[in-house]
User: What shape does this take?
Amino acid sequence: MSPRPARLRKISNPPSVSGFRPYGGKARKGKPEALFLHIEEFEALRLCDHEQLNHQQAAEAMAVSRPTLTRIYARARSKVAEAFVFGKQIIIEGGKVYFDSEWYSCRTCGCSFNNPHRQEHVERCALCGSKDFTNYM
Amino acid sequence: MKVAITSTGNTPESKVDQRFGRCSYFVVHDTETKDTEFIPNPNRNAREGAGPASVQIVASKNVQKIISGEFGIKIKSLLDSLNIQMIVIKDAEKSINEIIKMLNN
Assistant: This one.
């Protein structure tokens, strides 16, 4: 029998940057090696370490079970540590996730905004009216 | 259309407040009549439940957009169900005046 497909993780705050790069020392020569931090792992770090929720609360916020949240969190910590120790670049990308509602970020004013009306198509930035924005997914 | 902005003070020169539930003032701006109203936030020192209580205040003004620095996890789902759009500004140096000007562009 094949295993049950993994539950989608709910993301309430999409990351504001797409990654981190080391500088100085070894990183000066050539391109640093990169590792991928999944968006769900970023979200677990944000909830547990930045918002300082306990694992139970964080699990509810991401709509997964408490043990699953703890596994995601452990993976996130180990990846961040690996990047720090070996001076690797972190790229925040991928993972089995969905957002509360669709989020966009504007290249002109730097804001991000969501689209509460799913049926309607977003044509302009909600703040500055610019047409230069990107979808998070 | 009415827009709510979280503010650190009650003048148009004040900066946008990076918190939603515990901001100092809400600025309700009407883009059609250009009316701007400052509402002091009674929840600014609340220990718990400041977010949902603030959503109630803002929703009672019939706003369609809320501009702030960050929204907590309790607020996002609430605003989604109320069909209110969230706009996140990470630049804490923006003043209320500048934001209103951008909205009217």
